[in-house]
Amino acid sequence: MELNTVLAWDVQIPLASVWLALKQSTTVGWVIIGTLAFASIFAWTLMVAKSLELNKIRKLNFTLEKKLGRENCSNLLNLTESSFGNHRSHYQQLLLNALKAFFRPEFGSSYLEDDDETYAQRMNHVESALRRAVAKRTEEYENNMVFLSIIVTSAPFMGLLGTVWGVMEAFGAIGLTGGSIKDLAPGVSSALLTTIGGLVVAIPSVVGYNVLLDLVRRLTTDIETFASLIADRFELDWLKVQPEMEEE
Questions:
Q1: pTM score, whole prediction
Q2: Neighbouring C-alpha atoms within 13 Å toward the C-beta of 61
Q3: Contact 129, 98 (CB under 8 A)
């Protein structure tokens, strides 16, 4: 029972100090604390939403990648938009872009009749389409990350600004009123609150930012690898039908 009382007392003292510092904060302090509170809510909302979005994208991409394995799909060049059913993912859009580039009408009605030069032109267009699609998706993965980076960088400095401002006002008040050094304690305590607020906002944000950045990097690597896989499969599938055409 005594231990519980001690623990409760230890918790109540910091909370009471924080509340007292809040009540003694100046207008500038309240503005900074309010801004930090808004930044914290925004950062947490962004981190949760971005994490859910990126994990959903990764799950859908892996689902399609499994369906396109050799055991399930022997020739990617035979696929059409209707082949995917209701499935929608970035990998699907990447593959559709590659198929559209490969089957451009300028190259002829059938790739089975291509000579080496025409086929090389088809693959050049495919690789260009894949590069554009990968760049577009990478930009989408990084969307809104800049706002989280700004919060991570600026929150501690905003807290420091509030502290410096509060300490300056406290010393200014002492100079005008001729008070003692003891009179500085409330003002300094209130000023330090903004630094605490800045750190409370920045620490979870920097952790969340790095976790999301790692996820973005993995998604980018995955989609670049898948784009390379599409190009390789197109070449192998085209080479596979050549002996059949020669026999006919």
A1: 0.77
A2: 21
A3: yes
